[in-house]
Amino acid sequence: MKKKVIIATRGSKLALWQAEWVKAQIEKVSPDTEVELKKIKTTGDMILDVPLAQVGGKGLFVKEIEEALLKKKADLAVHSMKDVPTDLPEGLHLAAICKREDPRDAFIARMQKTGDRTQAIKGFKDLPKGAHVGTSSLRRICQLLNKRPDLKITHLRGNLDTRLRKLDEGQFDAIILAVAGVKRLGWKERITQVLEPEISLPAIGQGAVGIECRMDDEFINKLLKKLNHKATSVCVRAERSFLKKLEGGCQVPIGAYAQLISQKSEVRSQKSKTNPSPVTRHSSLVIKGLVGSLDGKTLIRASKTGKPEDAETLGTKLAEVLLSKGAGKILAEVYGK
Description:
Blueprint: E1 3-9, H1 13-29, E2 33-39, H2 43-46, H3 52-55, H4 63-70, E3 76-80, E4 92-97, E5 105-109, E6 111-114, E7 117-120, E8 132-134, H5 138-147, E9 152-154, H6 160-168, E10 174-178, H7 179-184, E11 193-195, E12 209-214, H8 218-225, H9 230-245, E13 254-262, H10 270-274, E14 283-292, E15 299-306, H11 311-324, H12 327-336
Parallel strand pairs: 1-2, 1-3, 8-9, 8-10
Antiparallel strand pairs: 3-12, 4-12, 5-10, 5-11, 6-7, 13-14, 14-15
Helix pairs in contact: 9-11
């Protein structure tokens, strides 16, 4: 007899891509399982005319989905890890974190018209003075303004296709999106430049898909165990413990990026940068963290290296370093606004 499993997901193109991908993985590891998607509108989906940071509260994109899990209207939920708060409701947990896509930010510019000529902006540093850039992320805003205080950065919300349409209509000179989402929806060729973490440190968990379920559901937990990617899980756990210590939500000027590095080869190709190596006794875990002021004038950065098995402790210690450098004062001002 086929076992039926219901996946709760947001209804955006990207959310549905992720849920369909998880559905396919479940059907691969458990052919006897029938999987159905249940679309749920979250608070974050309903409030589109206000910057997320002003809406306030944590879990804007997961709260209603988690309620469906708790009421047993769904068996598991698929999330972009950067949307998931560090504190989960009692009875729920993250049973699997899937293999991470490229965690970096994408700079996407529109074609510029100069007289009869149309030319493309080649990269972030080529933006003309006072250029108009769209993003809704405080993390991105503080880092971009730190490099280019002349930029005019405006609030940009909506699904990826909506944001790209606004760029094409000429509302912006460039927009910043997550590389992972752009690639997953098949729009990789739209990326003008992939921003290295030195320019824009990624959001916590960016590029990773997480699967949440009820702790007491043995069947689902056993099923999802097969979908967990150990290396990604280690890195994302380190980043999330960093965020938890700073008491930050997903709409704050905080960035973190953890990588597993094989001690045999500290010099690695770009490919291995974005695809974490397997967790081995030869690996060390490096996590970089950042807290920035909203005007970009102050960026507090630090990094920590340790063992993969100490992922959470390492993230917490990194947060403590940033707090000792004045990150708490910056965050208090942000929360005050």
